[in-house]
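step 3/5: co-fold with zinc ion
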Amino acid sequence: MKHVGIDVGGTKCFGVLVDDSGDVLREVRYPTPHASELINLLEAMFRELEGETTLGVGVPGLITADGVIKASPNMKGAHNIAVGPELRERLGIAVHVENDATSAAFGEWKAGAAMGAHDAVMVTLGTGIGGGIVMGGQLQRGANGFAGEIGHMIIERDGVECPCGRRGCWERYASGSAIEWLSGGIEGKSVFERFHAGDAHATHVVNTFAGWIAEGLASLTNICDPEVIVIGGGVIESFAAKIELLREKFSAALYSSEMRPHPRLAPASLGERAGAIGAALLVADSPR
Ligand SMILES: [Zn+2]
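step 4/5: write tokens
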């Protein structure tokens, strides 16, 4: 069967047509419209991709089980948009709407770097930190579908302020936006360039940054005991060959490090397609 998945991002909507194993057959992209036009665009994209019976949509924000967007921080006017119910009515197919980080995690699990794993944690280090947790061969959604918000795990009490309203969240220390803060105002990309060129200050910043990432990964390992941790997002691409540094810090941050098997740290393999592929494959896995 052919499934359509669409990842609704802050600036673009990226759609794919995939087969049952997640191989991409076609893809399209459009600028993200005002929220009032979103349902029309999703319908048009589904028709353009010639999907058959299912549509999965990944959206940042709070989504109900029925597929209603309650709030989406990066989309103007996104409040109570009945994407799922409306598209089911218009298209007469199964439609599932999911948080975008959860969709991306599902994609990496079903068709990417965590394929075949029974227990896995997916971490996306972007502007913030998104994630997804698979335990016992099941994607964990929690009682309300909000599980896996690993970026807001408190890592330093009364620490740096977070847009979520709290302080000391992991994503303030270990996401792309943290590098500028850690470096005293130097842009993240430039810090990594200087680091790769051997600059002493940049090396210190990147070491500190890798340490913060490792602290969070160690806590997640203590909670979930995964066999693999998949790390994606723009930040990890900047690390390039230096993922060894992250492994070192992670190993040092684990308790009884020498007494236990360590989870594999694997770079994500689906890139920007992870969310759309995951959304497409999620439909087969969801009740609606
Ligand atoms: Zn937070």
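step 5/5: annotate
The two ends are 17 Å apart (CA to CA).
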